[in-house]
Amino acid sequence: MNLLVVDDEYYIVQGIISSIRCDVLGIDSIFAAYSCEQARQIIAKKQVDILITDIEMSRENGLSLINWIQEQHYTIVTLILSGHQRFDYAQEAIKMHCFSYILKPVNPAALEKELLAQNAEHKDWACTEELMATTKDGKALYMHCLPADISGVSCEEGEVDASVFDRYRDPLYKEASFKPYIIAAMIFLAKFENPQEILKKLEERGMSRIFE
Q: N or C end of the chain: smaller count of CB under 10 Å?
């Protein structure tokens, strides 16, 4: 899950980002934008799941950003920030189906509570026995490499049931063992312009890769 924070005040954006506990909220990446236009560019290029945006910004109203998101049919949960408790803003936020309306200065504990509440509404991503039963003969292959959250094991409600994980433990660990090589290959390809020549030279050198 990815989060985008939008405000034309740099320190407010950075303050919000620094207060968010990504591990608690299940957030993979946080993007920062200091204008609605910059936010639109990020949304067009990146996967954004949650938006925290100020309403009153110098160049463009935050509500117009939300309106653009809806016109483009992006599925993004929105939390609105405002320095004033204005009824017209709250009313507009309700019309636009915004998840929450938060007053500045932002209280980190209150923000985390709002984000956790939003998370609680979306649990259809968990790989449960019920979900597996809907697949062909109930034998779909679960191949998420080493999930961090196993229901009833590492947390109360995770991304996969313990029984599902146990059923595919061997293929999961086998799949996960490929990851270091894939990462090394990606780094190698990014670092050298002609990787095939480098590999050829390494082969010609014939150096042993096993050290005793």
A: C
10 Cβ neighbours under 8 A, 6+ residues apart = 34
Say which amino acid occupies 46: K
3-class DSSP state for residue 150? strand
Model pTM?
0.54
Q: Which residue, among 44, 53, 65, has the nearest Cα to 8 in the 3D structure?
A: 53
Task: State the DSSP string of 5-68.
Answer: EE-S-HHHHHHHHHH--HHHHT--EEEEESSHHHHHHHHHHS---EEEEES--SSS-HHHHHHH
Secondary structure class of 102 (helix, strand, coil): strand
> 90-143 pLDDT, tens per residue?
666 666 666 666 767 777 787 777 777 766 666 666 788 888 888 888 777 666
